[in-house]
């Protein structure tokens, strides 16, 4: 994902304590994400950054709606999201972390800013449900009709000799 400068926080000028930031994630953010599931949207990211000696803790809250496609009818839809993520930045060097700690990112002592674009993307992406579906009755009626014609309904199945051995096992139970 491309880093967007509007999602960068310069922390060297900040005093120790809690600081609040708000980022609007709109079309440039979704274009930078280059994720075919995220077609666009309007999401607000509220970030509270707690700065302490040697450490920054970013609490990210992303909420809004993302344009995507329905997994059932493949039609466009808006998916509401509400996600939270915590990210810790350690200011005492990268060499102390081997990458096994997902929540901790080591920063070089010469770093003066953190780019949050990737972490905002993670928060949005993880807030998306596994299956994205329109509300009942809101799917494309033409697709619904085509699916109804091809669905296998419960009822007597045509006799297929390939399944005879399995049916015989089921009956023995």
List keywords for this structure.
173 residues, alpha+beta, 5-stranded mixed sheet
Instruction: Choose one word for the global shape.
Output: elongated
> What is the CA-based Rg, rounded?
24 Å
From the N-terminal CA to the C-terminal CA, the straight-line distance is: 54 Å
The amount of beta strand, in percent, is 35-45%
Number of E-state strands: 7
Structural class from helices and strands? alpha+beta
The overall pLDDT average reads 86
Q: Summarize the biggest pleated sheet.
A: 5 strands, mixed
What are the segments in which pLDDT stays under 50 over at least 5 consecutive residues?
none
Enumerate the strands of the largest sheet in spatial order, edge to edge or round the barrel: 2-3-4-5-6
* Estimated helix fraction: 10-25%
Quaternary organisation: single chain
Quickly count the domains: 1
Report on the structure:
- The chain is of the alpha+beta class and 173 residues long.
- It has one domain.
- 21% of the residues lie in helices and 35% in strands.
- The protein is built from four helices and seven strands.
- It has helices at 27-33, 117-127, 141-150, 164-172; strands spanning 8-10, 17-25, 40-52, 55-69, 76-90, 104-106, 113-115.
- The strands form two sheets. A five-stranded mixed sheet has the order 2-3-4-5-6.
- A hairpin with a 2-residue loop joins β3 and β4 (55-69).
- It is elongated and about 75 Å long.
- It starts with 7 loop residues before the first strand and ends with a helix.
């Amino acid at each position: 994902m491309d880093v967007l400068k509007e999602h960068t926080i310069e922390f060297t000028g900040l005093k120790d304590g809690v600081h609040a930031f708000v980022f609007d994630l709109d079309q440039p953010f979704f274009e930078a994400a280059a994720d075919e599931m995220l077609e666009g949207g309007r999401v607000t990211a509220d970030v509270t950054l707690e700065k302490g000696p040697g450490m920054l803790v970013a609490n990210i809250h992303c909420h809004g709606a993302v344009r995507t496609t329905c997994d059932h009818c493949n039609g466009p839809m808006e998916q509401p999201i509400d996600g939270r993520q915590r990210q810790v930045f350690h200011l005492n060097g990268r060499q102390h972390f081997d990458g096994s700690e997902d929540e901790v990112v080591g920063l070089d002592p010469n770093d003066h800013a953190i780019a949050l674009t990737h972490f905002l993307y993670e928060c949005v992406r993880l807030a998306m449900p596994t299956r994205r579906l329109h509300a009942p009755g809101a799917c494309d009626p033409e697709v619904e009709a085509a699916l109804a014609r091809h669905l296998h309904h419960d009822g007597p199945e045509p006799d297929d000799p390939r399944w005879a051995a399995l049916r015989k096992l089921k009956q023995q139970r």
